[in-house]
Amino acid sequence: FKQKTLTIGGIFPMSGSWAGGVGCLPAVEMALADVNNRTDILPDYKLDMRRGDSQCKPGLGTKVLYELLYEKPTKLLVLTGCSIVSTFVAQAAKMWKLVVLSYGGSSPALSNRERFPTFFRTHPSATLHNPIRVKVFKKFNWHRISTIQETQELFTSTIEDLEQRVKEAGIDIAVRQSFLTDPTNAVRNLKRQDARIIVGVFYEDMARRVFCQAYKERLYGKKHVWFIIGWYPDNWYKVKDDRHNCTIEQLEEALEGHFTTEAVMIHQEPTMTDVGMTAQQFTHRLNKILNTSDTSLVTGYPEAPLAYDAVWAVAFAFNKTVAQLAERNMKLEDFDYYNENITNAIYSAMNSTKFLGISGNVAFSAKGDRIAWTQIEQFINGSYVKLGVYDAAADNLTWYRKEKWLGGRPPPDHTQVIDDL
Ligand SMILES: CC1(C)CO[C@@H](CC(=O)O)CN1
Hints:
α4 crosses α5, α6 (about 185-190) crosses α7 and α7 crosses α8 (about 250-255). The chain has an 8-stranded mixed β-sheet with strand order 7-6-8-9-10-13-14-15, with helices on both faces. It has a 5-stranded parallel β-sheet with strand order 2-1-3-4-5. A two-stranded antiparallel sheet has the order 11-12. The longest helix has 24 residues, at about 305-325. It contains 12 helices and 15 strands. With about 425 residues, it is of the alpha/beta class. It binds [(2S)-5,5-dimethylmorpholin-2-yl]acetic acid (2BX). The site of [(2S)-5,5-dimethylmorpholin-2-yl]acetic acid has 10 residues, from loops.
């Protein structure tokens, strides 16, 4: 068994704007060990990885790619983390006929087969938040929406996708605001234009400033509903931050009742998965490896199941490819960065990959995007309560009926004479 070796490259951000390698590298190494323990998967091959640290910087990430490519042995595929590194690596990789699989790339820009013909990701695109937002707008009969965004490509393309989807749903974005570093005027304009149902997309440092200004403008409470991003660190609004002058209590008052949306990154059921472990068993093993009492301090911890499943996606795809190539008297280990037949075989095997992993059902769209569930939570009395989960593929919203309305019922999406009497 496992007489021969197949090697892949791995690029991990161990520091920088998203140091997700800290939580994801251990998960990848766990998966490599688990795959290599299976005699029914790649029985003739050991799956090995050579890796480097990108620090979540595109230039360094590109340098790591070149080092991986110019050092023996040949790499059959490259795993990447940050979006900004993945966009560089996935554009370069096609010159070496390499498939790229990202466990940490959320940028909507990566959903582009012209620019990234061989790219896949187990991390969902940020646009995955939009279908559940639209589903909930419809549920509460909101047809007049407002948006406010930090001017970053990630948020601009998310809002563009939202505009597409709300148009199809007959919902109107009446007010659009954006800001670069200071949200004061943008929030003031939302108030002036009587925004009620507001989608806000920005990083958590800006979120503190947005909600401090919302507190001052009284743009919160029983007549307003905020939808923001759900993957900020725990207690993100309690972080000491001299860029705003509100107290934690004032922020909590402005934040009361807001909704958050995020991708479900770990299987929600205690059932056995196709990778031979339950999600709980994975979490238990990872916590032991990380040997920390507070996993909320480990960047990349929520994304670790995506990284673990990325290795299994490679294993299943290579396993399929070995059989296909054998029919044409070819071998995976003959890959030499030029043989497009082998790349095409790996690509089509990856494209048709479907399995239940630790992060739930793993499957890719035609653009290589991860298809995943999303969840919506509400901030009630200072803590987040799960309100529902959405399977967009099946258009199935599971709703727990736990929402609370400060005014006793869902607020209307615009001024109503009765309402304001
Ligand atoms: C949910 C988050 C934090 C979004 O950014 C991803 C990193 C990136 O897209 O560069 C990691 N996961």
